[in-house]
Amino acid sequence: MFYKFGFYFIKMNKTLFLFLIVSVLFSCQKKTDTLNQENASDINTISVIIDDQLWNSEVGDSIRNKFASPVIGLPQEEPLFNINQYPVKLLEGFMNNCRNIIVIKKEDKNQFVIKENEFAKPQIVYYISGKNSISILDLIEKNAPEIISKIRKSEIQENQRHIDTLLFDFSKLEKQFKINLKIPREFKYASKKDRFVWL
Questions:
Q1: 61: closest CA among 88, 93, 29, 83?
Q2: Average pLDDT value over all residues in the chain
Q3: Which of 69, 54, 70 is nearest to 129 (CA)?
Q4: Tens digits of residue pLDDT in 145-156
Q5: Is the pLDDT of residue 98 over 60?
Q6: CA distances from 38 to 17, 82, 178, 187 (A)
Q7: Among residues 43, 122, 127, which one has the least CA distance to residue 79?
Q8: Please, which residues have CB within 8 angstroms of residue 3's CB and are 6 or more apart in sequence?
Q9: Buried (b) or exposed (e) across 155-189, using 16+ Cβ within 10 A?
Q10: Mean pLDDT of 171-197
């Protein structure tokens, strides 16, 4: 009986050991996949990684004024970008696969750093750090135009890429009207005549 128990115990240990090895390999593979994955962020959205204390201060006000100000000329008020704020500790978690990330921290050095495709692809991460709120505000003021320009460009490219993968079948209209257009799949025929089409 003791022999049978010993054999069973050794067998269980081997099974447990194999399970642990497979788990470790799977977690490493999952981490690698996460770093290489394509993100699924909404268009014109910025994830701002900043602690609540800074977010609820002049620094947060500056970010909202620069990146979420109303777009002039639209019939209804819409922000330049939609902003989602998260604490710094979430940067190491599920928030690192967003397309546009601004990380703001208080640190010993005043610096502005841009990193592309750091956690996902395509992605741009903007790191802003300063010794105090005044230094951070100064860096935001100086670099906001560049950040806005880069995000606008990348969002246009991402939107075009998305449209290219989900296109309306325009082949019949190409022959009829001798034109080539890229139209999102969501469009439908509202009216179709010999010399007129309404989508």
A1: 83
A2: 80
A3: 54
A4: 999 999 999 998
A5: yes
A6: 33, 20, 36, 26
A7: 43
A8: none
A9: beebeeeeeeeeebebeebeeeeeeeeeeeeeeee
A10: 82
Q: Which amino acid is at 137?
A: L
DSSP codes, 1-16: -HHHHHHHHHHHHHHH
State pTM to two decimals.
0.67
DSSP string, the chain: -HHHHHHHHHHHHHHHHHHHHHHHHHHHHHHHHHHHPBP-PPTTEEEEE--HHHHTSHHHHHHHHHHSPBPTT-SS--BSSEEEEE-GGGGGTGGGG-SEEEEEEE-SS-EEEEEESSSSBS-EEEEEEESSHHHHHHHHHHHHHHHHHHHHHHHHHHHHHHHHHSB---HHHHHHHS-----BTT---SEE-SS-EE-
How would you classify the pairing of strands 197-198 and 191-192? antiparallel
**Cα 198 from Cα 161, distance rounded (Å):** 24
